Amino acid sequence: MESNRRGHPVATTGLLTAVLLIVATTACGQEEAAEKERTASQLVQVSSVHEETGMTLLEGPTFAPDGGLLVVDVTAPAGEPKVLRVDTESLEVSPVLTDEASAYTSAQFSPHDDRLYLTDLIGGKIDSFTPEGEDPVTFFSGDVDGKPMLPDDLAFDEDGNLFVSDTTGHSDPVWDPQGRVVRIDRDTAEATVLADELPAPNGISFSEDFTGLWVSQYAANRIDYLGLNEDRTEVATAHPGIHFDGGTSQIDSNAVDAEGNVYQAVHGQPSIFVYSFTGEHLATVSVPAEDAGGLDTATNLAIAPGTTDAYMTVSGEDGGFVYTFEALGEGIRQSNGG
User: Fold this and answer.
1) Is 118 strand, coil or helix?
2) DSSP for 183-235?
């Protein structure tokens, strides 16, 4: 370092260049971080906190064949709408079906029979209905390998077979994993365990090419990738694919767009985190700051097929809402319910 006539050090050109580089790099990093932050717009309020249950929790958004958006209210009491229809144009909300005891946590239409399938977490079963909520049928119930199942989310393969996250052990610590991923045959309803001893699996979605499953592990805050064999009857390879640093919040349901991006919903904050299939954090979609005080959970999302119009279900003490944002890729089956 050079000195002036008074003996004080003078910064060299190299040092100045380094300082400017650090400043520029910091500014660039801050700009990139800001670009990742996206704000969703409120579309419509769907539900209010139920007096009987003390809460409302919207889940399972899925588009029906006629384009209507259906959502489930997990905590709706007996007699109140368990499945509701949202017209994304008129913003009209109407009931689809109810019953006395179910707690539906996800919804998706089958490519095999075009019926609506709902996972009943409390009842340990999977029900199906027409898109209008009629002709109720219990498609699956009972134990799997001698153990009851807590079916949370589901995904269909191209042939209409069901892949279900069994979130058994949901309240147990990560070091006591009891959850499973279960395949259910579309014709026989025979259940096969594909993976077990998992830390409360929740979200489950096929990759964009149907070669593997992205499974959100609620009690471990990670998203595992399960590569499947050719006929999707066994897990061929598996590894933790994405880790989520959520603090007190935990990962919930997920979805995949046509580009293979993974959209991860979060229980404990009203946000969706978007990752590339290689694990790069691409974006965080949150509700406006002025809304966040009364909304603490984003459970799931659906992207309208063939578009980038995304809809996320958000809930809290202010009620249950649908928010909308522009997705990074187009909607496909893997981003339409589950």
Assistant:
1) strand
2) EE-TTT--EEEEEEEES-EEEEEE-TTSSEEEEEETTTTEEEEEEE-TTSSSE
| Per-residue pLDDT reduced to its tens digit, 90-136 | 999 999 999 999 999 999 999 999 999 999 999 999 999 999 999 99
Instruction: Order the strands of the 83-86 sheet from edge to edge.
Output: 58-63, 69-73, 83-86, 93-97
- Ordered by where they begin, the domains of the chain are 38-335 (2.120.10.30)
The dihedral sign for the CA sequence 295, 203, 113, 138? negative
107: left (phi over 0), alpha (psi -120 to 50) or beta: beta
Q: What is the dihedral of CA 320, 70, 210, 200, to 10 degrees?
A: 40
Instruction: With residue 19 as reference, give the H or E element that holds it.
Output: helix 13-36
User: For the chain, how far is it from start to end, CA to CA, in angstroms?
Assistant: 63
Residues in a beta bridge with 117 = 108, 128
Specify the pLDDT at position 32: 59
Specify the higher pLDDT residue, 98 or 33. 98
Q: 233: closest CA among 179, 190, 203, 177?
A: 190
272-305: b or e for each residue (b if 16 or more CB lie within 10 Å)? bbbbebeeeebbbbbbeeebbeebbbbbbbbbbe
